[in-house]
Amino acid sequence: MRVVHSPRHALHDGGMELHRGELVPCFEMPARADFILQAVRQAGLEVSEPQAFGLESLWGVHDAGFVEFLRTAHAQWRAIGKQGFMLPSGFPARGMRRDHLPSGINGQMGYYAFDAGTPIVQGTWDAAFAAAQCALTAAAWVAEGERSAYALCRPPGHHAGHSTYGGYCFLNNAALAAQHLRERGCARVAVLDVDYHHGNGTQDIFWERADVLVVSLHGTPETEYPYFLGYADERGAGAGEGFTHNFPLPRGTTWAQYSAALDSALDAVARFGPDALVVSLGVDTYVGDPISAFALEREHFPLMGRRLAQLRLPTVFVQEGGYAVEDLGLNVAGVLEGFDA
Ligand code: Q9C
Ligand code: ZN
């Protein structure tokens, strides 16, 4: 399978997040992509740079005002004399003006963000836009007849909604891939999200749509990020009712338990009868992950890839999370090699 990746990911660097009461460098760091790149090259996969898609390629998934905010946020921050990374410090909660966009940059951050762990730095927009182009390029390859492709995206995307960012995500790379496939002849597209965290952004984007199925397996939001979405009773609304499926699993979930839930998730995908599959590939389900609590071991990732291949669908893999940086490459390559085996 071919790999698409942009070195521009490295422009998103230098941000800090609040972790257990301390400001620490983000777990989502440039070295993640370096380790993955090394492992996929080691596995003999060919790596290319993305094609150029314009800003308008984002409109099918994201709100134009939100995109404009992301594109100009750091320049606005510098315009008020600030430097370094930007984090929001106030959010519109119950009883507040949720639909009013303040004119100042701090209020705008709180309006569009849903956590204080997703810093924007000077290079964030360029890196996030390059990651989106990687996902669109992988989708284009599959639309043109490739059996599968892997978009090595960084920053990740599945927490980013129609007009929201958070969870280290700015633009929803997997949703962009799914929308691209829809526009290139696939009548039905399934997104399967195996990242440890619920893909709340992808769910938000396709919530009322019957043409894109969203299936996510993840740590239960009762105790795990993003806490406020990803419960089993969320099934879509309007035309999209029944086209969202969530499989929340407890901390400590082992491969035996995970594998049973994966079977149910794959059944839901197969019943939908899609023309193509997008996999939101987070490997933060790994036992060694520093911010997650499942117990998957290295040998389980090729088994996961094998099971995904058994759907016999044209498949776009999009990189999401995974923070055990030194083991990340082998775990990702394990899924891809299991798929190709
Ligand atoms: N200080 C993805 O895996 N922060 N995002 C957790 C740690 C949010 C993870 C708290 C984790 C988001 C793409
Ligand atoms: Zn994750």
From TrEMBL:
Keyword Mitochondrion appears in the UniProt entry: no
Key words, A-Z: Hydrolase, Metal-binding, Zinc
Any single biological process term in GO: epigenetic regulation of gene expression
Cofactor requirement: Zn(2+)
All residue ranges annotated as the Histone deacetylase domain in the record: 28-337
Pfam entry (one): Hist_deacetyl
MF annotations from Gene Ontology: histone deacetylase activity; hydrolase activity; metal ion binding
Keyword flag Hydrolase: yes
Alphabetical list of PANTHER family matching this protein: HISTONE DEACETYLASE 8, HISTONE DEACETYLASE HDAC1-RELATED
Family in the record: Belongs to the histone deacetylase family.
Protein name as it appears in the record: Acetylpolyamine aminohydrolase
Native source organism of the sequence: Myxococcus xanthus (strain DK1622)
